[in-house]
Sequence to fold (432 residues):
Amino acid sequence: MEEKEISQAVIGRLPRYYRYLKDLKDSGKERISSQELSRIMKVTASQIRQDFNNFGGFGQQGYGYNTNYLYEEIGKILGLDHVHNMVLVGAGNLGQALVKYLKFKKSGFNFICAFDINPQLFGQTVGGIPIRPLRELKDYVDANDVDIVVLTIPKSDAREVAHSLTRTNIKAIWNFAHIDLELPASIQVENVHLQDSLMKLSYNIHRNSISPDDDQ
Amino acid sequence: MEEKEISQAVIGRLPRYYRYLKDLKDSGKERISSQELSRIMKVTASQIRQDFNNFGGFGQQGYGYNTNYLYEEIGKILGLDHVHNMVLVGAGNLGQALVKYLKFKKSGFNFICAFDINPQLFGQTVGGIPIRPLRELKDYVDANDVDIVVLTIPKSDAREVAHSLTRTNIKAIWNFAHIDLELPASIQVENVHLQDSLMKLSYNIHRNSISPDDDQ
Fold:
């Protein structure tokens, strides 16, 4: 497959295609046209073709897409044919909920260890993985094959932890702390800012009540 | 303040301004120029001015922005001068973590009740709010002032629950179910698709390992 620079907007749409294709595949649908996919997903067929053309197509003229093949190929593009080892930093409520979320495991995202600063948690387990003292994080990451660090700690601590990881071999931080992290380009960051999401919702609620005729 | 159609891209940036302004305000910084804000937030000063001009400005030539005023005004635009009542649907790990997350409450987002299908949870509480049977949701929503329904249930159940809420007075759904909901325009939806976020991260990890010279 050709390598070219793909926009983050296209990348951001791939998981949604992947999700719809899984449902189609699971429901026994073997092939689908871009028009049909367009109707189900509520995006234009032209958008779908353009998105897929970034990766060299996938369709056959007059046949459409083979759902299973397309599902597998998008999975490979997303790197889902790899297993990713993850460690949790911050074994509070949100962190523990993420560790226990089984669907991540099904997609090859495996939590292997958790870290916290609360001594009462040391030696305990969550979702079958041990909780260790945060001060052991760097050594653990250096000694083990860790791909992704999941940060669910207060913003006051997040910057320091992220900084301590800059000279390790981790590939990415999945950041739930309510702060923007500054990291070298070799470490990918994906933010989940729950409060920002809620504020956006709040804006749209009140905008809607001010001018009810506006559309989305 | 003038009302005009503001793009969702601008709205999506407001919570980040709000967050930085809170930090500036809390650190005792009384005023700030767009250049200084630009440097801290790593967006162009021109972008900042354009974003704020959507709401009629806020700045004074030669003075810059009063951080406290700007913080308050953006808060009002985001609707944060209102209290929002929320109910949780799905009192599993993620749902319980969200209820216990105190920062939402500080921003005026109050969970008032939780619902689940698990009879063992009925009558229990989480974070001080009761957990009731899901079948009582519609009646509860009709009898109480509920602004936002937070959906943390499997995708197989999410569509039906969302549908049951279409003829109620709720204003929004904050959707964590891994599915796209179809709702009337009167109900705002904000999705938090954790798996999509993780897949995007995975893509960027592997893209990075294929062509290490690409920039973000």
Strands of chain A lie at 31-32, 65-66, 84-89, 109-116, 125-126, 129-133, 148-151, 172-175, 188-191. Confidence is low (pLDDT under 50) at residues 211-216 of chain A.
